[in-house]
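I am still getting used to backbone structure tokens and would like to learn alongside you. Label the sequence line and the structure token line clearly, so we can match residues to local backbone shapes. Would you write everything just below, so we can both look at the same thing?
***
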Amino acid sequence: MRSFQIPKMPPRAAPKAYQILAKTHQVTIFLTVPQSATIALLKDEALSALTSRVATEDDSFPHVQSTSDFELAHAVKGKEKGRPGVTYEVLEADKAIRGLLTNWEVLYFQFRDEDGNLMPVEVSQPSLLDEEEEELPVNKGKRKALPE
């Protein structure tokens, strides 16, 4: 009897471009950048989306004119006792994306106020339940009717 050996698959190559999601309020922006890009390029792409006609007509989030009006941050889960939840760590503009971010990573906008101070991240997570839940049908068993 001959033994059949399944050939091993070659390791999956890293993507040439990363898909990065940037969130604020109720908006998610999908950004596509090469691995060799820096956070500064990512901020330029995000600025382009934030200053588009669609975004400027929405008053639900701050309007920006330059990349100095906001920072991109990623969520860091609280590991300390007594401090559950998520904190946000600002990404330095001169850092390269490769090794810092992963493909499909979610980043968050932190806008600056008039004084140049970073405001807290404002993002609303969508509900996992449908807002208009259908009522479950009443369970109708196959019992015999009771005599009247």
Notes: The chain has a mean pLDDT of 82.
